[in-house]
Design brief:
14 helices; alpha/beta; globular; 9-stranded mixed sheet; Inosine-uridine Nucleoside N-ribohydrolase, Chain A
Length: about 325
């Protein structure tokens, strides 16, 4: 069982990643840290606590982190996740207290306490991790692995033609993280290639459980957008990233490249430059998941929503 801290800007697909990470026997979620990103910060904090309550994990501490990017301003993604992040109408008030302490400090403290044992699952902008690294330059040697959902590799972005949202939201933090850490990257292009198709969505719609109802609620806005754009299904970027971390058998091809982020303001803000040919001479220290098993990912998600057991199909 891999020990994990989930760093999240909790909205629709973040909730599914967090639920999967808690429910699988492959991972042990020891803390959740919240970072500025998808929707208003306080909503993200409540969304994380509410998700944990749905999977009977209210004892998992939730730490509040950076409420804004390092340098630049950003816009929320309410057009994807709804105003509150959970489809628009669901705005939980859990009454659960946040854990004491600042999320970047907690990341450092836990990694110092258990060097080489904590994996960071980063499914939002990378502000918290960049701040943690600023506090302890040895952090890259103290973590086990760093998994990041972000970037657009050989595809158009989803917030601008050049950039994916998580990297675009805080490109300065992303640039620092990719420079300092050996990252495993799950990018927007892979998420498109492993999207849940309409047949899978129909199966989910037929499931009568609280988790399936929650999934339908948090994906209603993105489903409507997809249908209007003529897309066959929806992506689950953060859920896919959690699944690829938990289940190595879902990874079909992983290659290592040098990756840099354009942190400059302008048309290419947040562009992820991937040196496929090795022309820069920079160290190829970012592992990019280039292909994954979309069918088995759907089975993992269905098992979670039906039986609260994402491991069932892979037993």
């Amino acid at each position: 069982m891999r020990r994990v801290i989930v760093d999240t800007d909790t909205a629709g697909d973040d909730t599914q990643a967090l639920a999967l990470a808690v429910l699988t026997d492959r991972l042990s979620v020891e803390a959740v840290t919240v970072v500025a990103g998808n929707v208003s910060f306080d909503r993200q904090v409540e969304n994380a606590k509410y998700t944990l309550s749905l999977v009977d994990s209210v004892d998992t501490p939730v730490y509040e982190g950076a409420r804004s990017p390092l340098v630049k301003s950003h816009e929320h993604a309410t057009e994807i996740h709804g105003e509150g992040g959970l489809g628009g109408d669901l705005r939980p008030e859990t009454g659960i207290d946040s854990a004491e302490g600042f999320a970047p400090d907690e990341i450092v403290a836990r990694c110092r306490e258990s060097p080489g044992e904590i994996t960071l699952l980063c499914i939002g902008p990378l502000t918290n991790l960049a701040l943690a690294h600023a506090r302890d330059k040895d952090l890259p040697d103290l973590v086990d692995e760093v998994w990041v959902m972000g970037g657009a590799v050989e595809c158009r972005g989803n917030v601008t033609p050049a950039a994916e949202f998580n990297v675009w939201a805080d490109p300065d933090a992303a640039n620092r993280v990719f420079d300092a850490f050996d990252v495993t990257l799950v990018d927007w292009g892979l998420c498109l290639r492993t999207a849940l198709d309409t047949d899978t969505l129909a199966e989910i719609d037929a499931i009568d459980t609280d988790l399936a109802a929650f999934f339908r609620e948090v994906t209603n806005v993105v489903r409507d957008r997809g249908e209007a754009a003529g897309l066959d299904g929806i992506t689950q970027p953060d859920g896919l990233t959690a699944a690829l971390l938990a289940y190595p058998e879902l990874r079909e091809r992983v290659e290592s490249y040098a990756v840099e982020v354009d942190e400059r303001e302008g048309l290419t803000r947040g562009y992820t430059s991937v040196d496929f040919e090795g022309v820069t001479g920079a160290s190829a220290d970012t592992r990019v998941v280039e292909a994954a098993d979309a069918e088995r990912f759907a089975e993992v998600l269905l098992g979670m929503l039906r039986e609260r057991d994402p491991d069932a199909s892979l037993a």
